[in-house]
Amino acid sequence: VGATVIFEGSTADAFETTLAATDPTADRTITLPNASGTVAFTSDIPTVAGVYAPLADPTFTGTPDAPTAAANTSTTQVATTAFVMTEVGDYAPLADPTFTGNVTMQSLDMDDIVAGDVIYGSGADTLARLAKGSNDQVLTLASGVPSWADAAGGGGGTSIADADADTKIQVEEGSDDDTIRFDVAGTQVATMAADVMTLEGNNNRTVQVKNTGGAYAYVTFQDTNTTAPSSGGGVTGAVRVGCQTNDLVFYADGEEKGRFLAGQGLTFNGDTAAANALDDYEEGTFTPTLIAG
Asked: Which among 92, 143, 257, 279 counts the fewest CB atoms within 10 Å?
């Protein structure tokens, strides 16, 4: 067996097909497939580098085709434009999205937020955070920015005030003051402590009780509580203005001792008859009782 095999073909001419074998350095075996067909030679195969993309980091040109993955596929498979358009149809755009159905929002980043913090709009595309204030502080707003401030009155106290804070009811002016103060037009006019209410100021102060629809109105100055103030019940000592008759009545030891009648005249010991009253014109028929001590 020589180094070449020559085939003449079906026509005896000057053209032949030669199979040449390179001198091997070891035994070689060439296996022909069990099939029919035409054998392809290297001249039939284009240059690989110029026609095919490499497997690593290939660069495609033109309009390459690829199989379209099924909807909701989540793998490293190549996504075709058809797959992308199908998936995008299930999402709202980032700019001016329109939501339908039940939308579940993700919670804010709560890592730095604690109980009592206030989250508010910053005026930009973000939310701002106001850290919680101290106990009894109130939330105020200036130029759209919230902040914490001590309640009016100081010492942890509170107050109800008008717009310029010069007329107000103030609870505890200082720490543990335990006094309610009444200010009008910037001047303190009255205070109320545990056992006394005081009208203050250099000018005369007037307390007025006005009946706006009841049977009567009255003011009582007394030394003990009473269960029936309109009739003097339970009172050991008192001065009562008004009552049902608009009289000025004096009580002692739980009993009425004297009365200035609204129609003029003075009566004693519970006698309210005008005929028995002591007045400027005549002497009544009352019997005076002398109380010593």
From this structure: 143
182: nearest Cα among 203, 163, 204, 166: 166
Distance CA 230, CA 20 (A): 141
Rg (CA), the chain: 55
86 sits in which H/E element: helix 81-88
* Integer Cα distance of 54 and 43 in angstroms: 21
The sheet with strand 187-192 has its strands ordered as: 158-161, 168-171, 180-184, 187-192, 197-199
Q: What is the pLDDT of residue 67?
A: 92
- Render pLDDT for 189-225 as a digit per residue (tens, 0 to 9): 888 888 777 887 766 666 666 666 655 555 666 555 5
- The residue assigned the tokens 């596929």 is 73
In the structure encoding, which two tokens stand for residue 102, read together?
A: 């039940």
CA-based torsion, 61, 67, 72, 77: positive or negative: negative
**H or E stretch at 130:** strand 127-130
CA angle 243, 246, 247 (to 5 degrees): 90
Lookup: tokens for 226: 């009473």
Closest CA to 240 of 263, 228, 222, 264: 222
CA–CA separation, 154 and 134 (whole Å): 13
**DSSP SS3 for 42:** helix
The tens digit of pLDDT for each residue in 236-288 reads 566 666 556 678 888 777 678 888 888 788 888 888 888 888 876 555 555 55
User: How far is residue 146's CA from residue 122's CA, in Å, rounded to a whole number?
Assistant: 10
